[in-house]
Amino acid sequence: MRCHRCGGLTEERLTDGRTRPVCRACGLVISTIPKLAVAVVLERDGKVLLGKRGRARAPPGSGLPGWVCRTGERSEDAAVREVREETGYSIELGPLIS
Questions:
Q1: Rounded to two decimals, what is the model's pTM?
Q2: Which of 40, 14, 27 is nearest to 96 (CA)?
Q3: Which pLDDT does position 71 carry in this prediction?
Q4: Structure letter (DSSP) for residue 43
């Protein structure tokens, strides 16, 4: 498994009384609790918009806007919120892909 903060490899360590994945590079304890996340494909004029990721959230590179839904938040609302937060765009959702 890789760390979602820095991209480093993880190893199993005893943390808070249980074994959990911990990043060897930055020390982040990786949550193993399942979470709902969204990613949004932004299309305009037949092209897909990719965002540039910073080191704070994931390994550097390009990707789709999105992240984890807040507790009690509908996935549709999270998708609109994440696009607004990450790009400044207001969007109208199209069909669900998967």
A1: 0.62
A2: 40
A3: 83
A4: E
> What is the per-residue burial (b if ≥16 Cβ within 10 Å, else e) of 41-71?
ebeeeeeeeebebeeeebeeeeebbbbebee
User: 10 Å Cβ neighbour count for 23?
Assistant: 21
Read off the pLDDT of residues 44-83 as tens digits, 9 standing for 90 and up.
Answer: 899 998 887 766 655 667 788 888 898 889 999 999 999 9
Are 22 and 71 in contact, with CB atoms under 8 Å apart? no
* Separation between Cα atoms, residue 26 and residue 33, nearest integer Å: 20
User: How far apart (Å, rounded) are the C-alpha atoms in residues 96 and 39?
Assistant: 10
Q: What is the mean pLDDT of the chain?
A: 87
Nearest to 52 by CA among 43, 40, 60, 41: 60
Instruction: Decide if 23 contacts 10 (C-beta within 8 A).
Output: yes
